[in-house]
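Let's sit down with a protein and look at its sequence and fold side by side. Please make up or recall a protein chain and show it to me in full. Label the sequence line and the structure token line clearly, so we can match residues to local backbone shapes. Go ahead whenever you are ready, and we will take it from there.
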Amino acid sequence: MASSLPESPIRVLEMNEAWDDGCFINLIMYQKGSNLYHAVSKIRHLSPSEVKVEDLNNNIPIPVSTYSPQISSTFTRTPDPPPHYYVKKQQLISYDRIYEGPRPNYIAESVLREAAVYELLKQHPHPNVATYLGCQVSDGRITSLCFEKYQRTVMQKVNPNSFMKRKVRLDCQRIKDYSSMLAGIKSGIEHLHTLGLVHNDINPGNIMLDGEMAVIIDFDSCRRIGESLEDVGRTYEWYDEHVKTALPQNDLDVLEEIRLWLGINPRK
């Protein structure tokens, strides 16, 4: 059951527009005191500062256990990171679709799975794979994952104007040779496969640049070779929707898509 409307003040942490029953709504995730809530507003807010407590409906408490799992004793802990680190926190804007489902702790389970992948990568580092620094922890629970911060994504570098894929492909053929970047992506992918992992969501938005060197990030869709991809999030236009199993070919097929997108001719 949704709770009664909490009193202000509130701090909006996430906000996203959605289409519902023929009209736009705002999904809101906010904090009141030490508690988090998910709510809906029928007003189209342009910024979090515009959200008022009286605008919010369907207020759902978000228990800490559903998004912040107990840390494993084998995981790396990191203190409050300096500003130049990247801190990845749990996204709770979709909690309303999860909390009454068969797996209300899905977000917490996903954090644990992703952290376990990063711990393996920390033991086997590679220059084309994101550098993981450890978990931030509060009261024995994981609150965020910490990484080296990189400059920008391949998407931001190659397609800053958010053109359609075909136009970017045509422009890239005329502008620049990205073969070195592609070689780095390939090297990172091959390293993952030697560890028995498949990324499953390789795309230009999940590849950062450290100078001109490609660095693969975002392993929440990563699975062991042969595992099911049921309930695994992947990026529209950058995966084969008919593929339901984590296989190395998933990543290699997208690598070929990226090669074409970058306008790189195949080696003869």
Remarks:
- The chain has a mean pLDDT of 87.
- The two ends are 62 Å apart (CA to CA).
- The chain has six helices and twelve strands.
